[in-house]
Amino acid sequence: MAGAISSVARNRVAADSTLIVEDITASAARHHAYAGHETVLLGRDDERGLTAIIAIHSTRLGPAIGGTRIWAHPHFDDALADVLRLSEGMTHKAAVAGLPHGGGKAVIIANPKRQKTTELFDAYAEMLGLVAERYFTAEDVGLTLADADYLKARTPNVLGTTRGGSKNPSPVTAFGVFLGIKSSVRHRLGKESVDGLTVAVQGLGAVGVEVARLLVDEGARLIVSDIDPERVDRAVKAWGARLAEPDDILAMEADVLAPCALGGGLNAQSIPMVRAQIVAGAANNQLATVADAERLAEAGILYAPDYVINAGGLLNVAGELASGGYDRDRVFSSVRAIPETLATIFRRAEEERTSTEAIARVITRERLSMADGTGRPG
Ligand code: NAI
To answer: What predicted TM-score, i.e. pTM, was given to this entire model?
Structure first.
């Protein structure tokens, strides 16, 4: 299949199109972020202002899923690194969630505030159409639901749209994160509830605020921080949450730290400041490097791997591809498996004296090796 795409994709997509798509898998294989990706396509359309990369990391378990990010990367190499790293991450997320899907990701190199045009999206939809069977995209940084709707009207491989799609994933993600926090609490503190525990929530956006609400409903005490003072104000007024400055939240005296803002916050400098026994939250890429998982383990902090606990958003869009179509109740049922997956990871990490992150990667490898390569788990 990859061969067929390569031959289609080497040149101008159609005689009357200005889009030129090149299969750059062979040159991407020399990049430091390359990890056995199946297909990497570069699309260019000078007339319509498109430069985009689609990276399909793996379709071993089934068609790849991953959002399209619009970002004005200053150098092509940065964009390539981003898309290679993120698409590989999606393979891990889908595999550990038990989905019949692989990982992919796309980056449109443009400024999302100034360079988004219908012409650019027309060209991008043509490019997506080339991999319609192997890669499904969705919203991401810079690509809004309205943009996804526009693309969906032009190519079938777009998920999470408002018209007939799975809509807002944040409540689903938040529910999974809440259950994941409870699973972590059960494992580390031996408690069945968060009642009476203190949780420090970093970031009160779409997911964070919903996680906070679920925690308060079960009797947790909150410490909150957000760079947007209005969001913090609302939490303080509604729930009597304690306020922490953004720079201080990681070091607060709490049972659980729930990072729900941006990634990269846990690193060699910040980890020694963490006082919570558990780190479990929604943010993607919470660890600056893989070595930080070891640092957390050595510090005796139980870490719920981010792509395991926040898989609700992916489970939600993948629900659109399930047989019988999207069913919100069925998606919520699949989210209820997240705590069990985490419990297995926690147990194995202890038995094998390694980090939870390392075990999550082992589980990915196990699931991939069990598949027969036709998209059906063996
Ligand atoms: P959002 O943009 O709605 O919320 C992020 C919040 O973090 C905002 O309120 C922002 O002001 C705040 N923030 C930014 N920097 C901060 C800092 N230094 N300290 C404290 N607060 C800060 O984003 P959303 O959708 O709630 O996502 C949160 C995280 O969860 C992101 O990392 C996202 O990638 C991840 N995620 C979200 C999913 C979803 O379904 N929305 C699915 C899976 C992961």
So the answer is: 0.91
